[in-house]
Amino acid sequence: MPSAMRKPQAKRGASVVERLDAEVDAYARRTRFFNEPLTKGRARMFVLQHRQNTRQRNSVLKLRVATNCPDWAIRLRIIGACSEEIIADHEHGGGRPHWAILEDLGVRIGLKRKEIENARLLVSTQLCWLAWEALMSNRHWLDGLVANTCAERANIPGYGEGLFKKRGWFGLERPRWAKLFGLSDDELEFFELHEEADIAHSNLGWQTVAEQAERLGVADQVVQACRLNLLVWEQYLNGIAAGGDALDRGKEPAYV
Q: What's the pLDDT tens digit per position in 90-107?
């Protein structure tokens, strides 16, 4: 059986948060993008796809989750986190939205700004958007909140192996991009701000799930939602890896 199809094993009697953490750990260990060498093609394809993905998820999908949320304070916190991503992050990003900071990083690694602005979607990215549409619209609000936060959780140390476990996903990426492109810490601000912001965003989701899932009797449903969303994230990032590999070979990736 493929590793992605095996359910992670949390200890017997584990809490909801422990079961969710087991899902994130399995995702960190099996996703190719994390565990294979970074290449220039993969890095550039990440910028070309993830800038678009950040805008789509935070201007459309996550706001649908906020609409379904019955708790006014949590709804506002979701909207506030989306605002940081697509309008302005005054706390971590110097007043700039996260997608614009990623765009600047793309220019530093050799992409032209027009190339970034006019980037085509990979087939894999488009299919993942359709999957997230199903997983984040017209669902139980806790399912949606997990969908908002589960991949951000991988930026918190403790999952996966090696440097990923020690520093989280973007803590892994910063030295990889620095070595590959000769960039300074200041030039890699996109990863630093997400290390800080994603801890705050993800803690919102994890703590709320912990408080609400058992009370509402939807613990198993929420854990399954986390697993399905991380399977989509795995396909999204592995699709970026495949598209980047095509760029490295001088071939055209599979675009929509």
A: 555 566 788 899 999 999
